[in-house]
Amino acid sequence: MELILATSIGILFASGIWLILRPRSFQVIIGLLLLSYAVNLFLFITGKIQVNRPAFASEAVSFIEGLYADPLPQALVLTAIVIGFATSALYLVVLLGSRGLTGTDHVDGKELEHDE
Amino acid sequence: MSLLLAEIIVLPILLPLFTGALLLLINERHHKLKFFINQTSTLLLFFLAVLLLGITDSAPAEQGLLVVLSANWAAPFGIVLVGDRLATLFLLVGALLANAALIFSYSRWARLGVHFHTLFQFLLMGINGALLTGDLFNLFVFFEVMLAASYGLLLHGYNITRIRAGMQYIVVNLLAAVFFLLGIALVYSATGTLNFADLAAKMPTLADEPRQLLHAGAAMLAVAFLTKSAIWPLGFWLPTTYSAASPPVAAMLVFLTKLGIYILLRLYYLLFGANSGASAGFAADFLLYAGLMTLAFGALGLLASQESSRIASYSAVISSGLLLTLLGLAEPSMLSAMLFYLISSTLAVTAFVLLTELIERIYTPADSVFALSMEFFAPEEEKQESAGVAIPAAMAFLGMSFVACALIIAGLPPLSGFIAKFNILHHLLQLPFSLSHWLLLILLMLAGLTAIIAFMRFGVRSFWTAQATTSPRLKLNEAGPVLLLLVLCISLAFFAEPLHNLLERITADLQHPQRYIEQVLSTLPTRKEAP
């Protein structure tokens, strides 16, 4: 389990970093999305990898170590997903605007051969 | 402290939130009404900030904090909002700049696109929230609120330059957010808490292994804040962004870099202050040298700048570099000098950003500039820029304001920039000799010199050349904010002592994080009687 999670986070990070260094804005946004998936997973496993454990007790029982999963990372990751989603959507709008105004999807807003 | 009083600290967040929401409902056609509501709310925010600074400053040192437990949960479990002297001082500076920028935007810039006023209020909400929060994740949320609003404002008056700059600005900040979250995750897994006070309380007794994890987390977080405060080499976005943004927005962006410095200041002295065990002074050297590099980069950039907006941008970079260097020196005696410089340089750079737009009208007929930025948006409103009263002797006003800005930013006597710089040098020379101090001394002088050269060159070119210049029509509401900011800077020079005393008290607060920790953690949830 640890190995799978660690590898997948690593692969997501690596692909994300590769993509955001590319010159097309579409590649950049895919890279940003991959990075945010990676970081969300990373945030999620800070609560330790636990399977089949509730995040909170439904009634007042005394706290027993190991019976419950850590609820905080789950709450954090939910918020992070929502915020990441919203800001990526915002970037997408700017990307489309840039595509429409400049006629190219290069991140600099112009193709290399048009360099002054 | 009575219960009702502490709850005032929520208002600087709620007021912009509700105003922004209200403004969303009003149609763009009612421009004056929207402006009026926005301005009223921003003015209220200013008075609120004065009041809050008064409250936090007048209380004795052991109980000056305004702590509000949101949802009535005790401190490490719920999210707390904390107002202390440092936060309320920044609140005040931010509200001042917001008022100046908003008044300036009235006659032209606010009408360039839709939802300027709403975004402006949401930006203020994000700034105030980030200043007042006492929780790392909540800080992230407010940062994102602020950044989302700033994306919108940067793109306000949509043209190709702004889109291009906006894309870079957004990508850089989204990446910074990734680092921010990574940092939060690492800090949480090291300590099991995200509350500032609780983190600080756990620092001295942390075991070795989690401590290393925490250091990694803190470094990740620092990447996010240092990107915001434009440290070299993370600050390349700044000049492009600032010169693309419309002047009132650029004025607010100047304050955002200072917000990065504020967070660093707060977290550094809470987590890595003198009594944080093995972590005391963590990475101070890094901050010092990176700050020096930023200073050098800013000075070189300033020398190479031709356009006024670039001069303003690199002045902001220099100011960030100096502040980061002083933070990295980790000398408590420098703190009040640093804060004084921060206030003075923020006001001066903002005034200059607003002023440059007025100066540029000298040689280009105002309408053509306007038409250029109006290319893609609402061309039918082009003719309506007649609001406000024109002031006489425009050239004399522009010239004098320009000289004042130049003097303050370059740090020449007799204005506040000189006092700030003198203060820094005075403290620097009292420290024992070391290479980095001398480097700082030399770079500080060089930065001043390049600032003088850049400003003189620009001034000579704009005011003294024989090209066909027109005396521009200045509106009172455009000249007013510039004048206001400059008068404030000048009065900083005259009333340096009361301000200095306040800054000394802030310094004392920062050096004794114990007060902060105890007050936050000892605040109890209120028990509400059943009705």
Secondary structure elements and pairings:
The complex is a heterodimer of chains A (116) and B (531).
Chain A: H1 2-20, H2 25-44, H3 71-102
Chain B: H1 3-6, H2 11-25, H3 31-58, E1 66-69, E2 80-83, H4 85-105, H5 116-132, H6 136-154, H7 160-191, H8 196-202, H9 208-228, H10 237-244, H11 247-271, H12 284-304, H13 308-329, H14 335-360, H15 366-373, E3 390-391, H16 394-410, H17 416-430, H18 435-464, E4 474-475, H19 476-494, H20 496-511, H21 513-522
Antiparallel strand pairs in B: 1-2, 3-4
Strand fraction of chain A equals under 5%
Radius of gyration of chain B: 23 Å
User: Quick one: overall form of chain B?
Assistant: globular
Task: Note the total helix count of chain A.
Answer: 3
The largest pleated sheet of chain A is described as: none
Structure summary, number of beta strands of chain A: 0
> Could you state the order of secondary-structure elements of chain B as H and E?
HHHEEHHHHHHHHHHHHEHHHEHHH
Structural class given helices, strands, pairing of chain B? Answer: mainly alpha
| Largest sheet: number of strands, sense, barrel closure of chain B | 2 strands, antiparallel
